[in-house]
């Protein structure tokens, strides 16, 4: 039954006012779906282009559409297109972060875990401090002499939020795996830090900062980090155990896929419910699901989930950029600053500068610290890699937008001039950093880290590693180099100190975890599940 | 960044009232996801049960949850759980109907096209007439002597809407393919009829029903039927042409899957925009996509789309039944009828009786008419099959609920007693017909049409047909019996009169359509797309 029929019937039932709002939502859904298709097709055609990527295309198309709507509506842009935090946090962000966890190279991620935590936690605190201090010193021409400490820290936190989504688009996991895992991992931990910051500054009395308050802050941060991770791991293990015990594959691929999607989403929403860091939770749920659950399902479920998660994430990303682009042109928020464009431009420039300084203030010192703990020079971060890490994390995206809206407006509206300036400045910083920095990142990486060397290095590593492995075709979700400790020669090679945690984890994993929760090589053979055709799987998954 | 953090930060920004509504939506999403998982697992465990199916389980779990919420909230059930037409029509219904078109046995469907149209169009008109007349005659104790003609026809149409979703759950496409395509196809055409009915009764002057008005009615019905179908076919062909021309598979499975999902949804929303029958449009879009687009994509895209569409549809179905079950217990709407429960019970019984009489009034006469046009006795509908068709279409579901809400309430609320009685009666009819009729359908089909015969017949047909075919492994989306006209002996066999339309369509399809839009055997070989491994595909798709 069509809504339109229902709408028309409203007219004679005396509820005609529903008609226009439902019609408007039908029109805007049509518009968004057409634009999404356009972005995908243009992104496909521009794949070889070194400057543009899908995010920037979507952002530019969004801005163009915004202009067209503005012209068609003769200056009064419609309110449908105003950024909605709920849409962003509840529907668009979870698939992106889950997919990142699901497809991340787990070995690489965990080997750099300490560096990632250092960057994400301490780095974000340093960046927030630098930006807040910078605004305080410059006082930003906001015409508010006595800007509250809470607001200062909030602005610092908003502009310290590295956009994980942009990073995923700009850095390539296969070309620059180390930088990808560092910058993306940092973005995920960054979230936990921001949540703790927001919660902490409410209770924190800035006039009496004591050592006990700092300890409390550190304690609640650790609690958030650990409990969010544990929740994600638990939900992931529950999904693995459920599917292994009931063996859904006996009957239906659809049930397995449905359970995996629903459980992944459940982990995110449970974290929201318990006031934890949902991004961290769903990220770890993705890692656990790819390590255990994914191996417990039928072959067609594996192909389906792998591509369905990637597609969902891909569409959500394009949607976000389209949305930010369209929202940027909303006329309401520009009205307050139109008679003093200079203030807005100078505020934006100062903020952009502070973002760059704030990031530099932690990337280079922390990289130095991190290098001190490494034994091999090949594990150390070169200055070129440090510059790339600094640059690739400069982009500010939808997360900053959502935070700014939440802090400076009431459901998208504001009546105060300083707040309006903060909103327009945030939009300017987001657009500028995404488009300009985003465009320059690919050429910069090519210039600083020429791909031939990188690629050759990883190729030679592979060709060296494969003869050592018993079943090289099995390495579909981890790196093929040294993930399987079965051959004794390889195990000996791995028993250098930095690998010992990994070695003990493998023993625990093989001895206890996999027999209980399933995983590669630990799924009992059941008719109807083609677990034996691993070489075919390789061919199919690409 | 967690919403919860954002919420907390609201407190000190002076927008604290957002907190409770966002928290409530987080709680209800968690609840729904947990219930969906529970339904899937219980449905899996009860798979062999002959009485229950996933819909009934979901409905019962929904009712139980409603009771628990009612008890926890001490009699004031929360308003979150009120049925939303927008959620139903814009998000839950499209994937179900699209998937039905995507997975339908096309040959069987088109062979019975005339019967389906007869049942769906004329049948719905007869049923609406019988139910409306029945209410008029009995006057239904509504205490409204002068019930308007418009309202009478609306009630008739609400209770003539066969629930396609229930049908999909109760009838099995593999066990009773003829009945499945008849009853389900009828449900789809039924939608077009209902839309035209609603539109027509607004302009129709019941005191001056002329022959011109009837002709206009018939004309607008034909227009709606044909234009909706054409729109669906066009969007489907556009997706096939786009993917064939650009060859997305060269780069990315994710882009192909995204384009297919988005285009399918676009067809539905475009039909809504143009006031057409969206269900009919998306159904035909699904048929065209499975015939052309699906063959133009990579092997992993095929596996992914096949299972992703089925999963989406599966989850949406369970969601609907859960939702209807939970909504049924909402206390508000029962308040008005609580002091006269007899009226509600008698109204419901009368409506149930009228639904059964109304359906009988067209199934048996129209089956007789349809049988007159068939030459072979094997094509004719036996009396047992007619009884099954009558019975399987008796269930009323979410579509009836949505229509009733739209007609008798204003965003879920009503202050008039007759309207409240209609709402509670609709809920009673939906619950009773789904649970009781639904439970009895499987045993009834087993009793009337024993499966052994059916299965044996189709088995022998297959074993007879396969040697005639050159590549039997190719028949993954159509019936294997006679879908490929390549061998001359088979082609001669097909050239009996009733197959001539099909024969000409095949010639047109092979000569013009497939070279342009792609399709089985007409996709140029491109490296990276494993089109040659058709036998593997079979193994993988199951």
Give an overview of the whole structure.
The structure is a homodimer of 542-residue chains. By secondary structure, chain A is an all-alpha fold. Chain A contains 22 helices and no strands. Chain A has helices spanning 3-13, 17-45, 54-72, 85-103, 106-111, 113-138, 149-158, 164-170, 177-203, 211-246, 253-273, 278-296, 299-328, 332-335, 341-373, 383-392, 398-408, 417-448, 451-465, 488-494, 500-517, 534-541. Chains A and B meet through helix 1, helix 2, helix 4, helix 9 and helix 11 of A and helix 1, helix 2, helix 4, helix 9 and helix 11 of B.
Category from helices, strands and their pairing of chain A: mainly alpha
> How many individual β-strands of chain A?
0
Strand content of chain A: under 5%
Number of helices of chain A: 22
Largest sheet composition of chain A: none
Relative helix content of chain A: over 70%
| Tertiary shape of chain A | globular
Poorly predicted ranges of chain A: 1-19, 453-498, 525-542
- Quaternary assembly: homodimer
Gyration radius of chain A (Cα, Å) is 25 Å
SSE series of chain A: HHHHHHHHHHHHHHHHHHHHHH
Largest interface: A-B, 97 and 96 residues
- Integer average pLDDT of chain A: 74
Q: Whole-Å distance between the termini of chain A? A: 40 Å
